[in-house]
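Bench notes, afternoon.
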Amino acid sequence: MELLAAALAGFAVAALTAPVGVSGAVLLLPVQLGALGMHGPQVSATNLLYNVVATPLGIARLARSARGNGAEMLTVTAAAVPCAVAGAAVRVTWLADPLLFRALLGVILLGTGLRLLFPSRTAPDAGRPGGARGGRGLLAGAAGGAALLGAAVGIGGGSLLAPLLIGVAGWLTARAAVVALTTTFATSVVGLTAYAVFDRVGFGAAPAAPDWDTGLALGAGGALGSLAGIVLSRRVGEQPLRFLLGALVCLTGAVYLVGLLR
């Protein structure tokens, strides 16, 4: 029954988040902490497992638009690998403190919700950052930071990187989506492996290994939910979904932060 609930949660969250370009992992963290009763670094690891199962479908869907973005995809992957390991290490040590983790989660949720409610205007696609060394270095630095935080929290990092590429660097949404999703997948695979290894060798807080059954159920539901989200967005439209999701994420983040003050 719990696995069915996890699959339904993954489906519902992905159906809402996929049409507006946000990883369902952001909202699945509160679901795991609350409804599924999970705790500790295992929550982040299980969320990364969700990404590993759910994101390949999105990558395949965007594969055609990835032409010409190969160098950028390699850049973010190379940056994400070491930073994802570092992020997992931070989670099982410093962020093993439940109060610190919930505070960080609340800030991320609130920031994500505000970005959905007040999206940045996309500037004209400004050249190709990969064409200059400085641009490639900035891209690697941004992807590395997103991967570190994404692995530590369990969201993958793409939802943190995409707003920077669109709102600050002026990338087109389709171009940023390919690179962001690549970052999410690379971070999730490497971060998930790091959590499993840390749990195996006894490094940091336990349990650190993912709940494999729950993660796979969440991911399977998420993969199907992303397809349903495409149909839903065509009927309802992206703007109502963006507003609904933004309000929900903001409210959830505010609840976490207010709860810490009690």
